[in-house]
Design a protein that fits this description.
The protein is α/β, with parallel strands linked by helices. The protein has two domains: 194 residues, 3-Layer(aba) Sandwich (D-Maltodextrin-Binding Protein, domain 2), CATH 3.40.190; 115 residues, D-Maltodextrin-Binding Protein, domain 2.
Length: 330
């Protein structure tokens, strides 16, 4: 795992941006044709610690890619800086299709924080989508609340006494919690982790009181009864947990969701990008993967590279509106 290095905020934001698929030089096209891809293992980088939705979704896709393309697609976790450490390492990797990044809402949020980010000159190209899914407001089972209104009342009656988990700076878990804090008129302390997995472990053990995360990450703890879900972050109820009300029922301006996809270093040959896009879309259509996605409330994101790039940039614009609200002063 590479060591974290101090870099400028501008560099972090620049690494998080995306570009359209870059044009291929004749030499690159010849190389791609001369050596069929993939001819060796592919590294699929996860920007967070094990146990989160990014890793769980990626594992399902990589298993299918390994079978269909005849080479291992190996998951490698590189947590740090809310996903920026992994983003930076993949952006600087050889543009040959053998190092890919599992992207998440953290990349979208970082790009949204940079008003000058455009497709031109960015360090990653969009390969394919994976899924969109709602987040859940989760609490430790010992917290004396069982509904969203009870939680809000308890938080307001105990200002500054609750601790909330974050999967890292710039993540959808943190921004959802901060948007909830702002709209709910409450105060609490935030505890940062290097991914959802460690935060959920501390939530179950009572070291923190609450957090936002998705059903894919929290499923095992929810089934065991160690944590409790109070509400869903989207305006629609989750198919997997239909009894959970949307946060918007109580805080009308609240709405967030997780957004997951795949990126590659800029200048990766278009033929490779398009091959991966087709294969990932084929994997998403697999009935077994569709069943797993449905179990955690994930909606597949399908389409060619152009469709996914447009979807990604629409998500950036949405978060540009949300970030100022979530970042309001305490």
């Amino acid at each position: 795992m590479p060591k974290d290095r101090t870099i400028t905020r501008r560099a972090l934001l620049h690494c998080a941006a995306w570009s359209g698929v870059a044009a291929i030089s004749p030499a690159a096209a010849f190389a791609a044709a001369d050596a069929p891809y993939p001819s060796r293992p592919v590294t699929w980088v996860i920007p967070f610690a094990p146990g989160g939705a990014t890793g769980r979704l990626s594992l399902l896709i990589c298993e299918r890619l390994s079978l269909r393309l005849g080479q291992p697609f190996v998951l490698e976790h590189r947590p740090g800086a809310g996903g920026a450490t992994a983003t930076r390492s993949v952006a600087s990797a050889a543009p040959d299709g053998y190092t890919l990044l599992a992207t998440s809402t953290a990349n979208v949020i970082n790009a949204a924080l940079d008003p000058s980010s455009t497709e031109d000159g960015a360090d990653l190209v969009p390969v394919a989508g994976m899924a969109r899914m709602p987040l859940l407001l989760l609490v430790n089972k010992e917290l004396p609340v069982k509904t969203l209104p009870e939680f809000l009342a308890y938080a307001r009656a105990n200002p500054g006494k609750l601790s909330v988990g974050s999967a890292g700076a710039g993540t959808v878990q943190l921004l959802s919690a901060e948007l909830f804090r702002t709209l709910g008129g409450i105060t609490w302390s935030v505890v940062h982790y290097r991914g959802s997995g460690p935060a959920l472990t501390d939530l179950a053990s009572g070291h923190i009181h609450a957090m936002f995360d998705n059903a894919a990450s929290a499923a095992d703890l929810l089934r065991s009864g160690k944590i409790r879900a109070l509400a869903v972050s989207t305006r629609e109820r989750a198919q997997t947990l239909p009894d959970l009300p949307p946060v918007a029922d109580v805080l009308p301006a609240f709405e967030t969701s997780g957004f997951y996809g795949v990126g590659a270093p800029r200048r990766t040959p278009q033929a490779i990008v398009e091959l991966l896009n087709r294969e990932i879309n084929t994997a998403l259509a697999d009935p077994e993967i569709a069943r797993h996605f449905a179990e955690v409330g994930a909606t597949p994101i399908t389409g060619d590279t152009g469709v996914y790039a447009a979807t990604y940039h629409a998500e950036v614009m949405r978060w540009r509106k949300l970030v100022p609200q979530a970042s309001a002063k305490r």
